Each structure stands twice: as C-alpha cells, then as structure tokens.
Amino acid sequence: MRVLIVGGSGLLGSELARRCSAAGHEVVATYLTRPGKIVDVEWAPLDVLRREDVGALIGAHKPEMVVNAAYRQADWTTTAAGAANVALAASATGARLVHMADDTVFSDAATRYDETRVTGAITPNGAAEAAAVTAMNAIAPAAVTARTCLFTGDGDRPHEAPAHPPATDWGSGVLFTDDVPRPVHVADLAAALLELAASEHHDVHRVAGTDAASRNEPGSLTARRDGLDGDRPPSARRADTAAPGPLDARLMCC
C-alpha cells in the first residue's frame, strides 16, 4: 500500500512512518523544516498552507491512504486550513483519509467525553481543531478522525521537559495537578490509528489511555525513569493560573 503521512517528522508521524515501513508499505512522509530519520521512507518537504503544493504532492504519489498528523499549536491556519487542504487533495485522488485531532475542542462542561458529546472550544487552538474536523467531515465524509489527548513518548515530548531540570534548577515550566486527561503512549496511539485506518469507520473516534492521570503524574514518572527525583518537578493548579483550557476532560473510547 502507498501511504502518505503529512507531518511525518513529528513524534507521532515518525512512529506511523516506522510502523508502515516495517509492515512493507511504500511510505512518503512530509516535513516542514527538516526530514525525519526513519529509513526506507521517502521524505518530502511540504507546507500544508500551500494548497497547490499539497495537491501536487498527493496527485504525484497517488497514495491509497493519507494520514494528516500536521500540527502547530500556535498556528491556527496550519491546524485548520492545512487540514482542509489535505482533505481536498486526498478526496481528489480517492485516498483513504485519516486525521489526527486533540481534546482542546472541549470546555469544562463535563468530566467524561464520549462520542456524542458536543464540543465547546475555549481556546484558539481548540477552535482551530474544531474547524479542522468540520472541514474534514464536509469535504471527505468517509474520512476518519482519531481524537486523542496527552500522548507520551520516551522523554521527547514537550510536556515532559519540566521533569528534566537545567544545570541548577527545574526552570520555569510547571506540570498541572488538576489537568486530568487519559494519557496514551505514542506507540499505542499509532497502532490504534492504523487500526482505524484499516477499518470502514468514519467521523470522529476517541483514542486515549485506560487510566486518568494529571499532567503532573507522567512528569514525575518520567523523572524517576531517568534517575531524577520524581518529587521535584514543579507543579501547579491550572485553575490558579491564567492558562486557558479544559481541566478534567477524559476521553471515553468506543
């Protein structure tokens, strides 16, 4: 199978590229600033905001499956308009389209969010995520969206950084104790996403871990794993800060 992974140089994109390549698929993965390091993968530069370039790349390779894992938290247009551009190009070639989304679309209206819960974004990124999924469903009704939350790696995720102190102190980063998702490891997330891709499912499906845990807990575990003091990562309550976002938003998987 020919697979195109948009945003293939990120942590999730790299894991997807590795798995697809190991399974014997022909893999093309895109990057914005620098290519990834997965061997047996063709790396292609791509800015998803350039609609013509997205269409040209997908048209040239004619992939049977397109996975959109492109994401820039501070860039509304990459998340929303970029997703629409990928959906338009994938639809034009008849490719199976899989889109990655996150839980920032939710507010604090509920604690547990199942497949039927209406979104209520309270941050710019959440609004962009909601717009991206709306565009996906309108342009490519047969596409499937995997909505996840906090996913962890092996020390290479930004939210794990506060668990690693600089030379003399823990720095300015904090890990919230009242922000409670259901974390999932990137390997499990990638496996679930590819399982969804191979199915006939469409629309949005939640993909999260089995246990709820505050953002502080994975940070402490990361510190202990790396031989550091697990009690020292700086913690705070999101409710006591100006940081926007839902607090206890647990995705309930189908």
What is the fold-level CATH name, i.e. the topology of the largest domain? Rossmann fold
SS summary, helix count: 6
CATH class term of the largest domain: Alpha Beta
Strand content: 15-25%
Percent of residues in helical segments?
A: 25-40%
Question: What does the average pLDDT come to?
Answer: 79
Radius of gyration, in angstroms, nearest whole number = 18 Å
Provide the CATH superfamily of the largest domain: NAD(P)-binding Rossmann-like Domain
Shape: globular
CATH architect. name of the largest domain? 3-Layer(aba) Sandwich
- The structural domain count equals 2
Helix/strand class:
alpha/beta
Q: Which H/E pattern describes the elements? A: EHEEHEHEEHEEEEHEHEE
Oligomeric state as shown: single chain
Number of strands: 13
Largest sheet: 7 strands, parallel
Strand order of the largest sheet: 3-2-1-4-5-7-11
**What distance lies between the first and last C-alpha atoms, to the nearest angstrom?**
27 Å
Q: Which parts are unreliable, with pLDDT below 50 for 5 consecutive residues or more?
A: 157-172
Structure overview:
This protein has 254 residues and is an alpha/beta fold. It contains six helices and 13 strands. 31% of the residues lie in helices and 19% in strands. It has a seven-stranded parallel sheet with strand order 3-2-1-4-5-7-11, with helices on both faces. A two-stranded parallel ribbon has the order 6-13. The protein has a two-stranded parallel sheet with strand order 8-10. Helix 1 (11-22) packs across helix 5, helix 2 (51-61) packs parallel to helix 3 (76-93) and helix 3 runs parallel beside helix 4.
